[in-house]
Amino acid sequence: MTETDRVAVIGASMTQFGQREEWILELLSEAGLDCLSNAGVEADEVEHLYVSNMTSGEFEGMTGVMNALAHDIGAIPAYTQRVDQTSSSGGAGIYAAWQSIQSGASEMTLLVGGEKMTHRTTGEATDIIASIAHPVEYKAGVTLPSFAGMTARHYLERFDAPRESLAKVAAKNHRNGVDNPHAQFQKEVDVETILESPIVADPLRLYDFCPITDGSAAMLFCPESVAKEYTDEYAIAAGVDGATDTHVVHEREDPTVMGGVVESGQGAYEMSGYGPEDIDVAELHDMFTILEFLQMEGLGFAEQGEAWELVEEGYTERDTGELPVNTSGGLKSKGHPLGASGVAQGVEIYEQLVGEAGDRQVEADVGLCCNVGGFGNCVITTIMEAAR
Amino acid sequence: MTMEATRYDDGTISYPGHPRSRNGAEPAGTIDLSEHTAEVVTWTTSTATPPGVREPNHLAIVEFDLGDVVEDGETSVRALVQLENGDVETGDEVEPIYTEELREPGAGIREPESQDWDGYRFEPV
Fold it and tell me: What are the residue ranges spanned by the domains of chain A?
């Protein structure tokens, strides 16, 4: 790493997301090996290997996945580390990989995120995820969807936003997912169907929520000087930052503001030199439709309480909007295998910047992804730019 | 049984309490919220509940006005609580009713001995 070097992303891959027969190690291996193959890099060139994963121990009874993966893909003696930051483990993995290159500790870092979830019942999966909650929240039986329901009601009432605006987020992201061959759901869903689907956490309904998903995604990082030995088509990780907000959700001064989004966004903007007006495409953590509004506002794409108006105006549409949001289909359509999701956001932005997004391709030189952990307890924002 | 909020040296209040306030101040005392009514800030009815949780589960974020027991600093605090039922609206005044078991210990992933399980459900005054 030289003084003028920047951190480059020279490869990216993701497995089919959805209900998979494979277990966690097989999923991680599939994405990791695809990523190396796509970049033309041998496994024994990997110096650092990070695995973003929240719950392989709780879901599958499998721990130590980072060392097992190093063995399975032939990356020994690479340094390994598992990165757990709940739902933002993937984004935290991007931050760890960026740090490893930027610091000079590694000249080739492979990041693989993954989760195996669908073998559990919805109740069991919901409980494992909700185990992040404080004891006073947990004993009340809170779930992440119920936090979303309370926040959505507060947002709609406070800002006089129509319920349909949330449904339009889901409809948009399902539309985008049709063109993503790796998405769990490649099917359009209209607003009427969304508004008539079963209530899960009033006022939110089934289609306001992402599914439970198996899958894995990977990215390969190195100094820009090394990247040029492999390819002319790469992206630069121009800015990345992470931040926390209160663990206990109701202790936040304003339920419609996620402090971690605001803080990490400001940090990523500052590091990259870009601002909200420079972002051409964004992947936001739409685990619940209401989160797309909160992130648009927290990242400066909209004033507080006004994101819903931009969605109504078509501002975030992929083919016609000024700022396409969730061109991949988002977590909503693509799926949300916890540890993989933040990495998969990075994969989408990488593919958009190097022109490999196929039917989802938009014109983009600068892209942003925002990966939210818990209900905003921790957040990672990453800004990438096309190599010039 | 009490529902104790913590007041800190810097005048802030939180429920639950923490070793330090959000500004780093030390705890200075407690306030029993079960002796107060509260106002519903927002609420939901959850129909997909985890093991050991009633279905449906009515939840709310409520705000306690503590102006009658606190002279300076913050005079309100919020809490996430269970509601007796879903017959509420935002802005309703609610009061606590003691409940021995808000959720069945051991049914979910959390170690039963690691925390308490009783508490208060709230219903409109």
Answer: 7-120+212-230
Inter-chain residue contact B102 with A123, CB threshold 8 Å: no
Residue among B46, B57, B80 whose CB faces A136 most closely: B80
B14 contacts in chain A (CB < 8 Å): 248, 251
Average pLDDT over residues A180-204: 98
User: What is the helix (H) or strand (E) element at residue A266, kind and residue range?
Assistant: helix A259-272
**In sequence order, what DSSP letters do the residues of A335-383 get, joined into one string?**
---HHHHHHHHHHHHHHHHTT--GGG----SEEEEEEEETTTTEEEEEE
**What is the reported pLDDT for B43?**
98
Domain edges within chain B: 36-124
Residues of A in contact with B74 (CB under 8 A): none
- Measured CA to CA in angstroms, residue A269 lies from A3, A28, A297, A367, B12 at distances of 21, 31, 15, 11, 32
Provide CATH code, domain A7-120+212-230.
3.40.47.10
B83-102 CB burial, b ≥16 within 10 A, e <16: beeeebeeebebebeeeeeb
Residue A2: pLDDT over 90:
no
What contacts A86, CB < 8 A, 6 or more positions away? A54, A129, A132, A338, A373, A374, A377, A378
**Spatial distance between the Cα atoms of B82 and B59, rounded to a whole number of angstroms:** 5
Q: What is the ipTM of this complex?
A: 0.98
Residues in a beta bridge with B99: B119
**A:B CB pairs within 8 Å:** 128
